[in-house]
Write a structure and sequence with these properties.
Length: 93
């Protein structure tokens, strides 16, 4: 559990997938959809660094509305590393 997000990681038999949950208590539909878009974009950009065959479920906490994209991204990275489902990107030389 991070500052702004709760992560559930479940091993799967097929591909890596993302599920997003944003409660109505977080805000209006516009606010909730904006948060979902941020989650999906973070997942899309970092999918290659996530262990294969994993279902990820991200649940937003109420504090998420007051933070930037970068802070959400860092929070998710910390959670993925704690769950041992994040591989550090390979640096090409």
């Amino acid at each position: 559990m991070g500052q702004y997000t709760v992560l559930y990681a479940i091993s799967a038999e097929d591909e890596t997938k993302l599920g997003v949950s944003v409660s109505k208590s977080i805000g209006s539909a516009v606010v909730r959809n904006k948060i979902k878009r941020k989650y999906r974009e973070i997942f899309r950009l970092n999918r290659q660094n996530i262990v294969s065959n994993t279902y990820l479920i991200l649940k937003a906490k109420n504090k998420i509305t007051a933070v930037s994209y970068h802070e959400i991204e860092q929070d998710i990275f910390v959670l993925l590393k704690k769950a041992y489902v994040y591989k550090e990107p390979e640096v090409r030389r």
